[in-house]
Amino acid sequence: NAGVTQTPKFQVLKTGQSMTLQCAQDMNHNSMYWYRQDPGMGLRLIYYSASEGTTDKGEVPNGYNVSRLNKREFSLRLESAAPSQTSVYFCASSEEAAGRIYQPQHFGDGTRLSIL
Amino acid sequence: KQEVTQIPAALSVPEGENLVLNCSFTDSAIYNLQWFRQDPGKGLTSLLLIQSSQREQTSGRLNASLDKSSGRSTLYIAASQPGDSATYLCAVKNSNYQLIWGAGTKLIIKP
Asked: In terms of C-beta density within 10 A (0-12 exposed, 13-18 middle, 19 or more buried), how is residue B18 classed?
């Protein structure tokens, strides 16, 4: 009954380093999302994947890349980390059903990332 | 461009009070509106989802209403408890696969 699992939970990087945030869901959801949450702001969508094999840019995609490895896994990569990417990153998944009966998104516990 | 606003940013009330959290949005063409709860250091938990054709949803002590024409939603919490302390966020879906989020209201229930 894990839901959405994110790894790692915490990470400190130096400017210019690269890393990949991992996300896996066990609910057989089609859609997966990566958000960032900054103090005093709402969540902002970085990338999403409507289904296996597809990815699309969200509101703030610059500096990030994603891979939908299979239906369960959706990873987020920072190729050259910058201090402005210091944030809490959340992965989410949902079952976007036919007929526009939308279901709520399920979230992981987040990755707290600091870029020095 | 859709914008979602939550006022107040923080609220502190004594235990047992009924309270209302507010969410407003600028574009009434939405598919649904969702209310989430976020506990410190944790992810978000969906509380209520109101489809565009609905006026309200209820779950236990929580009731969420939606008035698309005025661009407003409220989350009503009855008989508040210290365990209700958390940040409450609302989000609207007005395009495929994308939610637009408010910044949240931090709620503190004093014992």
From this structure: exposed
A72: number of Cβ within 10 Å? 17
Instruction: Report the amino acid identity of residue A38.
Output: D
Q: Which two tokens stand for residue A106?
A: 């399920």
Cβ neighbourhood burial of A91 (10 Å; 0-12, 13-18, 19+): buried
Which helix H or strand E contains A101, and what residues bound it? none
Could A90 and B43 be called an inter-chain contact, meaning their C-beta atoms sit closer than 8 Å? yes
Nearest chain B Cα to A96, which residue? B97
Nearest residue in B to A58, CA atom: B98
Phi, psi for B60 (deg, rounded to 5):
60, -125
> Is residue A103 a contact partner of residue A97, using CB atoms and an 8 Å limit?
yes
pLDDT digits (tens), chain A, 116 positions:
679 999 999 999 999 999 999 999 999 998 899 999 998 888 999 999 988 888 999 989 999 999 998 999 999 999 999 999 999 999 999 887 554 556 778 999 999 999 99
> Residues of A with CB below 8 A from B99's CB?
43, 45, 105
